[in-house]
Amino acid sequence: MSYANVEMKIIQWAEARRIIPNSTPETQLLKAVSEMGELADATIKNDQEAIVDSVGDVMVCLVNYCALQDINLVDCMEVAYDQIKNRRGTLLPNGLFVKETT
Length: 102
Prior knowledge:
This protein is mainly α. Helix content is 71%, strand content 6%. A two-stranded antiparallel sheet has the order 1-2.
């Protein structure tokens, strides 16, 4: 299933349950942060099933957030990609990103 199809199914699901329009962007943002906490916990425990579930839950919250803000999540990712696509550098094993100087 394509991303667009999944996104539309999430929005339809949220509308059927009145999450959209009765929720708020703030509520969906806080729910996404909560789900990120669950993702962090699953990552620490190396629980692959919980990781997959948590990533999905975060994405559902972000789709709902964007729908309530009348913005498109893919457009947001494109903006972010446009900002990073020309960055050069390397991530070191210690987690430090060293920018390449031109």
